[in-house]
Every structure is written in structure tokens, then in C-alpha cells.
Specification:
By secondary structure, the protein is an alpha/beta fold. The chain has helices spanning about 40-50, 65-70, 105-120, and strands at about 1-15, 20-25, 25-30, 55, 60-65, 75-80, 125, 135-150.
């Protein structure tokens, strides 16, 4: 599974003029399932994201994770958005190929699993809508943007 994590001051998802998900400070996470991905990979990806130390501590060092903020009452929201284009392969020319993207049924199931697990582990979770045409707005904080991939265990 793939994710693109962005530390944000605020972020929102709008569909047809209606805001369907929004957070204040926290993480905007774009999530993509690839062929062969499993719920175990989704769980591992979520665990890494929740513990990723990219928020500043009192000394200004990136030493806090989103859950540290949540526990300190400082707002540490998660906005989870499905985005199959993270798996784009651009090695063959100018038009991206998406052959590694999970089939829609698997992608939806893994995204919904990811969201459900996040809601069980974190107090503030907002989402986009799987396979919808979404407009995502954000104020990137830093900017801090980190790609992450969890591969199957062998």
C-alpha cells in the first residue's frame, strides 16, 4: 500500500460544492491500494503513519507524532483520501499507466478497512469518498510531505 502524508494546518475535501471531510492541524493522508495488498498491510501502514514523528516538540525538533498531539489536546486530525494515481507508472512515456492499482472492489475494501482501523485508533478522522471526483484543499505546514510504502511481508 502507498500513502502520501502531508502535515497540514488545515485540509478539506469537497464534492460537488459540499465539504464532506475537513480537519484543522494534523495529517492529510492520500492512500492507494495496489494489486495484492492485504488488510495486514493497511494495518501496518496506519501504525507507521500514527507514529510518524513529524510534528515539532517544545525545542522545535520533529519529535511528535499525530497521536502525541491528540493526547495533548492540541488537535491532531487525520483526513484520509483515496487516490489511485499514487501508483502511477510514468516509465513508459508521457501517459501514466495504472496497471499496479488494485481492482476497484479490493481498493474500496482496503480503503474502508484503513478508515475503520483509523477511527478505532484515533479520535479525529475525516475522509473523502472512494472513487469520487474530489477537490482537496490544504495548507501544507512546513511544508512537510512524506511518501510511504508498505510492502507485503515475505
Amino acid at each position: 500500500m502507498l500513502a502520501l502524508i502531508q502535515r497540514v494546518r488545515r485540509a478539506s475535501v469537497t464534492i460537488e460544492g459540499t465539504v464532506v471531510g475537513q480537519i484543522g492541524a494534523g495529517l492529510l493522508v492520500l492512500v492507494c491500494a495496489e494489486q495484492g495488498d492485504t488488510p495486514a498491510q493497511a494495518d501496518k501502514l496506519l501504525a507507521k503513519i500514527l507514529k510518524l514523528r513529524i510534528f515539532s516538540d517544545a525545542q522545535g525538533k520533529m519529535n511528535r507524532c499525530v497521536q502525541d498531539l491528540d493526547g495533548a489536546g492540541l488537535h491532531g486530525g487525520l483526513l484520509l483520501v483515496s487516490q489511485f494515481t499514487l501508483a502511477a507508472d510514468t516509465s513508459g512515456g508521457n501517459r501514466p499507466s495504472f496497471t499496479q492499482v488494485a481492482a476497484p472492489d479490493l481498493g474500496r475494501a482496503l480503503y474502508e478497512h484503513f478508515v475503520q482501523q483509523a477511527r478505532g485508533a484515533h479520535s479525529e478522522v475525516a475522509t473523502g469518498v472512494f472513487a469520487a471526483d474530489m477537490q482537496v484543499e490544504l495548507v501544507n505546514d512546513g511544508p512537510v510531505t512524506i511518501p510511504m510504502r508498505v510492502q507485503p511481508s515475505i
